[in-house]
Amino acid sequence: MSTCPNCGAKVSPDDVFCQNCGYRLKPAATSTNEAAADQSDSRPEPQPAKPEPTPTEPKPAMTAPAPKRNKRRKKRSHKKAIWISLIVIVILILAGTYFYGAGKYSKSKQVDDMVTAMHDNDTAATVNYMTTTDPNLDINAKSIKPFMSYLNSDKGYLADMKTSLMANNQTSDGTFKLVTKGHHLLVFPDYKLEVVAMYPTVQTNLDQAPISINGLDVATANNDHYSYKAGPLFPGRYNFKSFVPQTDATSRSVTKNLVSTQSKNIKVDLSTPDSTDSSGSTNQAADTNDNNDNSSSNDSNNSDDSTPSDSNYGHFEEEYHGDEQAGIDAIADQYGFDYDDYTYIVSWPHKDVLQVKAYNKDDHSYDSTYRYDQIHDISSQLDESSGKFKE
């Protein structure tokens, strides 16, 4: 162990300075070399050059994102397939619904259902098919009963109704009109039959006589020229009657088919003839049964029968249908008179030949007798003096 020449303290051979007094133990040259060595040690060491990748080696930065893009494409393709499947299913459902509705709710199918319900006397279904613009007309099973009764007497009405509704959306007599009330399945019209309400005016010369319609008392006359406006009534067959209370010695009964717009404000005359017997008592007037059947007429078809019976003055033109109504219209056109001014008794003296007796609607006086040849479209009038028909 060496000692410091300055202070005599022990020093190590490797020490440059004395640790006790700081005396330099090694010469300055050695310090300079070491300083140079220290400076060289403080310089940054050169980094080794990175080897260049070979052309066959894939670059990590370029190849890493590729798998993510493939996953996104797969997800997008899967979602697109799901949407296409949903759209196809919706289209199939809509197409199936449309074809189902087109068959079930077509105009012809709904009209056929209406006519079938009336033909089968299905009151509930018939009520459901009916509507009206008259707020006072109550459509129910009771109010349509006269119409169902009328259908039993006129078997051809429903066939004409079906044909007319399909062609013109209303019946030939104008009583029923096909209208739309809402929609089925938001697309197909829901059809109803809009009906015209009837308001007949009843007249009687029987003072204090009750007036009934289909057996139901509706008014009582308070003078001998009484008039009562009935209604609203659902179209149909109605019996109007006036009679003297208790004794029923004098009565008048008329049955009318109110199934035409021309019958809406029809006048029903329940007046009785002012005739008395030798004792001064009033004779009973026979009931009248005005219907559309050919058999209802008491006409004997003899050309010399120029006066009607007291109990039957015929029907109004609008109460007839088909060939009979067409024959009356043709005669009125030929001879230039208003068919509303008369009532008529219709008969068929020959096949395809219609005979019409006309009576004044106000006083029931006989006017004339006509015939209409359907085949040749020829109208003729009875010559009362010769008893022959002349064109």
From TrEMBL:
The chain crosses the membrane at residues 81-101. Residues 3-25 form the Putative zinc-ribbon domain. Residues 45-58 have a biased composition (Pro residues). Residues 269-312 have a biased composition (Low complexity). Residues 29-76, 265-316 are annotated as: Disordered. InterPro entries: TcaA_2nd, Znf_ribbon. Signal peptide: none annotated. Residues 108-195 form the TcaA second domain. Pfam families: TcaA_2nd (PF22813), Zn_ribbon_3 (PF13248). Keywords: Membrane, Transmembrane, Transmembrane helix. Coiled coil: none annotated. PANTHER family: MEMBRANE-ASSOCIATED PROTEIN TCAA. This is Zinc ribbon domain-containing protein.
